[in-house]
Structures are given as structure tokens and as C-alpha cells.
Amino acid sequence: MSISLFISAIIFILIAARQWLPSAIRIWHIMTFGAIALLLMRQISLKEAFFAIDWDLILYLFAVFSIASALYDTGISEQISKRILSVKHPSMVLTSYVIAMALCAAVLTNDAAAVIGVPIAIMLARNMKWGLIPLLIILCATVTIGSMVSPVGNPQNILIANAGNFDNMFIVFGQWILVPAAITLLVSMIWLKRFLKTTDIANYEATRNYRKQNEIGQKWPALLSAALLLLFIVAGSVLHNVNSIYQPTFGQIGLAACLPIYIVSRERQRILREVDWPTLFFFISMFVVTGSLLKSGSLQFFLEVSGIDLAEPETVAFVSFFASQLFSNVPVVEIYLKLLHQHDTQTLMMLSAISTVAGNLFIISAASNVIVLQQAEKFGIKPFNFWQFFFLMLPVSIASILISYFWILW
Fold it and tell me: Where is it mainly found (predicted)?
């Protein structure tokens, strides 16, 4: 076993055992310490680590987190929760919440939807007397599944959209993934709804607003940035095949969209402080860890010895699912794309769907799970632990894998 593979295994074990570690130790601390350890042991150089990081993705996430933070400051979470609660009937309240968060994930990425969705979950749990922990887990499942249908729904889809060079990436993702995503979302809601009846009064008492929304005077810069992000992404997709027009990257699109926030808004300093920096550090460290793992040659050696064809649908599903449990889906997709010899549509869609729904099994499997957990802690909530998440999400994971696999194969 290489040192890189050994360190990766330790990172997974520590995250799984986090509930027994001191509360001050967060998931991003563990990943960052792992990356630092690999650098100190010279498993990867600083230059190699720098180029192992997908900076375009990091810039896009920074922009999306900025927009999500600014949108929260406009009171959008409170407005959405009031609109949802006006429905009254419990089943319709839950359905409205799930649909709203799934759409938010498809447009603004699952990570941004997680930021916006946590305070909504708190308000719904208080008013409906639902258990907050299962509602937060429903949020994790919803933003993961909702992000499947869009090329900008999650970081791994962005990587796949760039690699696929599709004529119209929105149509391609819709044709291949919309139906299994809708079925999976329905199945997961039916399963997880049964756990909402247990209330957690201690969590309600612990909650607190960590931002004072009534101090916000300007709302239009955040709304303009969100509209620009959607407009730029759609325009980029439509103009993708026009050779004479410059094709901006996702990172450049994100930075251009968030300019109104940082140029015009009087809240720019607070928004910058409240960007989800821990998650960005988590991603940066994760790219360093996987870069070291790729450099070690352990994975390449295993593939050469086993004779596995990475383009086979069964292999794509198996490897992307189980590897995502160890290293999270974003770096797994990045490594997989580098090891693939050809990028046909079915292979890429299988990789996208399975690596995304793989995030439903463990907390570490998707960064959006980590964000929900970290956002809940900002509100003074003791969120779900590793095993609570696993046992509730295991049936969802099995259903989502089977539905996605057979639909895309068919």
C-alpha cells in the first residue's frame, strides 16, 4: 500500500469516527491535515499540488458561495419558508420544500442550495414540529438528487460537462438523467418522510441566527448576480458551437456573475467573510490528496493488473460508487476522466449519475453533506453524525443506484 493510499484511508476513518473526536475538529480540518501530511512527507510537491487543484472549479464555487451568502442576506430563506408554510398540509409542505431545494440545486449547485436550505429546514421543523435531524438529512438527499439533472448542479457535473464537449449540455443531461432523478427523489421522500415525527427540542433551543437580516439595505446586487449566473450559463451553452465567439470557463462565468456583489453592494466585506471558506479549503485539500494518490500510481497499477475496462457501464457504476465513498465524488470523477481513453456520452452520463447519487451513502461522499453539517453547526445545532446519516440514507442509496444504472443502460 502506498503512503498516499494509506493517508487517504486514515482520512476516511477519522471522518467516520468524528463523533468521538473533540467537537472543535471539523471535517475540513481532517482533510486539510491529510493534505499537509502528504506535502510534508514529499508524496507530492508544492508545484504538483498547485496544479492538481482544479482552480476553475474552486473559482466557480467561490462565486456560487458568494451569491448564496448574499441571497441569504436578502432574507430569501425566510421568504421561501413562509411561502412553503402557507400550504398548511404537512405532505404538501414537505413536497414544496423538496421541489424548491431540488430546483435551487439544479440552478445554483447543490452546495449553494445546502447553504440556503439549512435555515429553511430549521424554520419548517419548528413550525411543523418535525425532527430537525431527519429534515436535514432529507435536505442532503434532495440537493444531491436535484443536482443530477443539470451540468452546473454539482462540481463533478461541471467537470464532466467540460470533458464531454456536448453540443447542448442542458439537453444532454435532461435526456439522460431527468427521469431517474425524478423517480429517485420521489422514492427518497417517501422513505425519509416516516422519520420526521420525532422532534428534537434541544436542537430547537440551541438554534440561533448567525446573521441579522434586518440590517440588510441592498437586495438587488444579490438578485442581479443570481440572474447573471443563470443567464451566462445558459448563453454559454447555447453559443457553445459558435467558433468565432470566446468560450469562457465556468470559473470565469461565476466571477463575472458575482461582480455586482463585490463592486456595488455595501455588504461586500461581510459577504466575503461569510463565504463558505471551510468547504473551499476542504475541496482544495481534497484535490491535493487525490493528486498525490494519482501520482503514486496505485490506481493505475491496480487497473493494469486487473485488466478492467473503465468504459464498461458496470465498471463505471461500480468504481464511481465505491471510490466516491473513500475519496468523495468530485476527485473520483476528476481521476476517472483522466484515466478514460474516450469520452462517449453514455459513459459520461453513467459516471455523472452514479458518482452523484453515491453522495447519499456517507457524509464524506458529497461535499454538500459536509456543507449542511457545517451550516447547521453555525446555527448552534448538533447535527447528524456519521452513522445516523448512513442508516437513514442506505435505502436511498440502493434505490438511486439501481434506478440510475438501469435507466442509463437502457
Answer: membrane
pLDDT digits (tens, 9 = 90+) for 115-162: 888 889 998 988 888 888 899 999 999 999 999 998 888 878 888 887
Total domains in the chain come to: 1
| The three three-digit cell numbers of residue 36, written as one number | 499537509
Helix, strand, coil distribution of the chain in percent, nearest 5: 75, 0, 25
- The C-alpha atoms of residue 278 and residue 273 are separated, in whole angstroms, by 11
Q: How far is CA 51 from CA 33, 56, 134, 290, in A?
A: 19, 11, 39, 12
What is d(CA 82, CA 369) in angstroms, rounded to the nearest whole number?
Answer: 25
Please give the grid coordinates belonging to residue 276. Answer: 463558505
Output b/e per residue, 219-232; b: 16+ Cβ within 10 A.
bebbbbbbebbeeb
pTM over 0.85: no
Residue 229: what residue type?
A: L
Cα–Cα distance, 289 to 28 (Å, whole number): 13
Residue entry with cell 449540455: 169
Q: Which helix (H) or strand (E) holds 202?
A: helix 201-206
* C-alpha cell recorded at residue 203: 436542537
Query: Which domain, by its residues, includes 360?
Result: 3-409
Q: What is the DSSP string of 219-274?
A: -HHHHHHHHHHHHHHHHHHHTTT-TTS----HHHHHHHHTHHHHHT-TTHHHHHHH
**What SS3 class is residue 156?**
helix
pLDDT digits (tens, 9 = 90+) for 212-243: 444 555 678 888 988 888 888 777 766 666 66
What totals of helices (H) and strands (E) does the chain contain, helices first?
Answer: 21, 0
Task: Compute the CA torsion angle 188, 193, 194, 197 (nearest 10 deg).
Answer: 150
Beta carbons within 8 Å of 43's beta carbon, 6+ residues apart: 3, 4, 7, 292, 295, 296
Band of residue 305 on the pLDDT scale cut at 50, 70, 90: low
Angstrom distance (rounded) from CA 5 to CA 1 = 6
